[in-house]
Design goal:
13 strands; Ubiquitin-like (UB roll)
Length: 253
């Protein structure tokens, strides 16, 4: 009796394996009839994504190269992440995560939330984003520095509108108010100290005088030079301990 059940079980397993092989072979030739695109999309077109997928589909249900399809979709400018799955019997699901632009690149293109520089075809709606300028390979570092600057600018109620990295590590900043901050190669600890403690009183003085601040040169060892918007000559604010030569030469007028 035991041998009979063993033989029957073996026969069932063989039959099941043969059926799976037959289904797989049939699937190699079974055409994929539907492509669905999932994900929250703002700048990508579902129709454009479907066209890209179809253009790189070869073979039937099991024969299609999912990695090839995924790489093709990842090559589109706004695409950050892609997963591709089969759904029996004739559907391919493509799930897309779209990039989120957080800055513009001065030489063209956008910077994503992870610091990736990419170049979508249309960027007309991105005018409100801050502008970063420097070497393309430094985009992640510039984005991270801009975020730190925005944190330090909170007490002054200002944010970065543009950040430029000059040669040899010198920086300049344009605030959303239009004021230019010349940082040169000051250590970040000094920049943080001056932005959080010295800049708010300076902006308060500008409000009291009802004038704009055109430029603040912060490169001095213990102070900064201010150019006012009312035509008054630039004034230099230096602490008594030291005198006044700028610290850093890359942003000299």
């Amino acid at each position: 009796m035991k041998r009979w059940w063993t033989a029957l079980l073996f026969l069932l397993l063989v039959t099941a394996a043969a059926w799976l092989v037959a289904v797989a072979r049939q699937g190699d030739f079974t055409p994929l009839k539907r492509v669905t695109v999932e994900g929250e999309l703002r700048y990508l077109s579902r129709e454009r994504l479907q066209e890209e997928v179809v253009a790189h589909m070869e073979g039937g249900f099991f024969a299609i190269d999912l990695d090839r399809v995924r790489r093709a979709v990842e090559g589109l400018p706004w695409v950050a992440q892609v997963t591709v799955r089969r759904h029996w019997p004739d559907r391919l699901e493509v799930r897309v995560k779209e990039r989120r632009a957080v800055a513009r690149w001065a030489d063209g293109g956008l910077v994503g939330a992870g610091g990736v520089l990419f170049h979508p075809p249309a960027q007309g709606s991105m005018k409100e984003l801050p502008v970063l300028q420097g070497r393309a390979e430094d985009a992640p570092r510039l984005l991270a520095f801009m975020r730190r600057l925005n944190g330090w600018l909170l007490p002054a109620g200002r944010v970065v509108a543009a950040l430029t990295a000059e040669r040899r590590g010198a920086f300049s900043v344009r605030l959303d108010s239009g004021t230019e901050l010349v940082l040169g190669r000051l250590p970040e600890a000094v920049v943080r100290e001056r932005l959080t403690r010295a800049l708010p009183p300076l902006l308060g003085e500008a409000r009291r005088r009802a004038v704009d601040i055109i430029r603040v040169d912060m490169r001095y060892p213990n102070g900064f030079a201010v150019t006012w918007g009312d035509g008054e000559p630039a004034t230099t604010s230096i602490t008594p301990e030291t005198g006044g030569t700028p610290n850093g030469d890359m942003n000299n007028p």
